[in-house]
Amino acid sequence: MSSPFLAIDIGNTRLKWALYDSARPGAALQAQGAEFLDHIERLADGPWADLPSPGSMLGCVVAGDAVRRRAEEQIVERFDCTPRWVMSSAGEAGIVNGYDHPTRLGADRFVAMIGARHRMLAAAKPGQPPRPMVVVLIGTAVTVEAIDADGKFLGGLILPGHGIMLRALESGTAGLHVPTGEVREFPTNTSDALTSGGTYAIAGAVERMVQHVRSHCGAEPACYMTGGAGWKMAPVMNGHFELVESLIMDGLLVIARERASN
Ligand SMILES: Nc1ncnc2c1ncn2[C@@H]1O[C@H](COP(=O)(O)OP(=O)(O)O)[C@@H](O)[C@H]1O
Ligand SMILES: CC(C)(COP(=O)(O)O)[C@@H](O)C(=O)NCCC(=O)O
Ligand SMILES: [K+]
């Protein structure tokens, strides 16, 4: 008998949650939401109050122990299931972790790569070999991961996200104040210059990683993008980046299914 499954992704800005009808890739989404970290205490009595109780949950958390504990309090207060969190390991669910210290890799990065690998394999036509991948997470920070065709995580970049870049510029200068501008190829005012600078800094780093993977692996990578600010980046990306809002949740579903069958 399958029972509902709760997936949770806690980043440095927001907690994202999604309730599925079962713990397997492709499960039907029953409810989802996102809360800024300051508002986690309201989950049990708020958005979670009327949900069916999940039989199990799995999450990833990079926001620190205090935030994880606050989330666990909400989970056990509201639901009859044990909080479980993915730790990055030397390998799981088709990804081999090439980090110098595999457990130090952010769990969100590890899980997103697992979700992406599953998606890439599912999209392959019969007889088509697995492809290398570039996986981009646009959250508080930006990460750009390289994975070869065998599923080995080769390494990844960490950059400041849009918000951190703008706040750093504002605090480090007299004449720059955080404005909201437009992305322009040739910005002619400060607001547009700042917004475009941040956007193209990320786009440029991503394009470089695509080049690195292409020449290292000798094949065109499958490119996936996710994260709260992914929609801002998708329109300026050259080439075919697939924006997959649910990549981390997809990875949690893959891991939950694998763990249940092992
Ligand atoms: N409702 C929103 N409107 C505009 N931007 C948002 C919104 N929510 C998130 N963002 C952007 O996305 C970033 C956070 O994305 P998210 O994936 O939640 O990050 P994290 O996983 O680090 O918590 C923020 O830095 C912000 O730029
Ligand atoms: C790189 C990150 C800060 C990204 O966090 P996020 O933007 O999702 O909040 C997080 O994955 C993290 O703390 N990683 C640990 C260090 C590492 O991956 O090398
Ligand atoms: K994240």
Automatic annotation (TrEMBL):
Keyword Transferase belongs to the record: yes
Cellular component GO terms held in the UniProt record: cytoplasm
Active-site residues, record numbering mapped to chain: D108 (proton acceptor)
Top-rank lineage group of the source organism: Bacteria
Subcellular location, record wording: Cytoplasm
Complex and partners: Homodimer.
Name assigned to this protein: Type III pantothenate kinase
Species whose genome carries this gene: Variovorax guangxiensis
Gene, per the UniProt record: coaX
